[in-house]
Design a protein that fits this description.
The complex is a heterodimer of chains A (about 130) and B (about 70).
Chain A lengths: L11 H14 L3 E7 L5 E4 L3 H19 L3 E7 L4 E7 L2 E7 L5 H16 L15
Antiparallel strand pairs in A: 1-2, 1-5, 3-4, 4-5
Helix pairs in contact in A: 1-3
Chain B lengths: L4 H26 L3 E6 L4 E4 L4 H17 L6
Antiparallel strand pairs in B: 1-2
The chains are: A alpha+beta (about 130), B alpha+beta (about 70).
């Protein structure tokens, strides 16, 4: 499901930490999940099975729509916004309140995945530029 | 008599706040549901909610929003 970049093994603990960091960084975040190269959930804010299934469905439709693997997905609805990102062999899916800042959300997601893929704890995004 | 300095400052701040509030109102009113996909090389695609693919994307997004639930209380 995620992109085809080579990655090492990411521990569930590191992914949980990264998810907590993501939640801490984004005040608009409602829920999120981090998935590995096989689409298995490494960490999720709620029901892992549902996140796996629903994230796979989203990526499947997005891949089919473009005829190639999608890199980023941003869907805005009346009920909330969905962000999905593949990076460094991992994937992150985030649900936020409406009107979340897309560029910052993707920035944080990318930083977290890059850090996790490098074998760190996913908190590299602490170097994030100030939103103000 | 010139207005007191703090009055000038307050008026300016409330003017900016009014403008910002109006901007947010316009943004909310004008923003329709959207689905935007980005591929390697910077290619991007928009899908309307009444298109076949758009419909599927909104269904998938709706399921994710459902599983995420409400924002946790701070």
């Amino acid at each position: 499901m995620p992109d085809d970049a080579a990655t090492g093994v990411v521990s569930g603990d590191a992914a949980e930490g990264a998810l907590a960091y993501l939640a801490e960084m984004s005040l608009d975040l409602r829920g999120a999940a981090i998935l590995d190269a096989d689409g298995a959930v490494l960490a999720a804010s709620s029901d892992s099975g549902r996140w796996r299934e629903d994230a796979a469905a989203l990526f499947e439709v997005a891949d089919r729509a473009g005829g190639e693997p999608v890199e980023q997905v941003h869907i805005g609805t009346e009920q909330g916004e969905v962000f999905a990102l593949r990076h460094a062999g991992l994937a992150a899916v985030v649900v936020t309140e409406r009107f979340a800042l897309a560029s910052l959300t993707f920035f944080d997601m990318r930083a977290v995945l890059r850090d996790l893929a490098a074998g760190a704890d996913g908190r590299a995004g602490e170097a994030r530029p100030d939103a103000s | 008599m010139p207005p007191k300095p703090h009055r000038v400052l307050l008026d300016r701040v409330s003017g900016y706040a009014d403008e910002a509030a109006a901007y947010m109102r316009r943004r909310r009113a004008s923003r329709r549901p959207f689905a935007r996909l980005y591929y390697k090389g910077g290619r991007a695609e928009d899908h309307a909610d009444d298109s076949a693919v758009g419909g599927e994307l909104f269904v998938a997004a709706g399921r994710l929003i459902e599983v995420a639930g409400k924002k946790p209380k701070q």
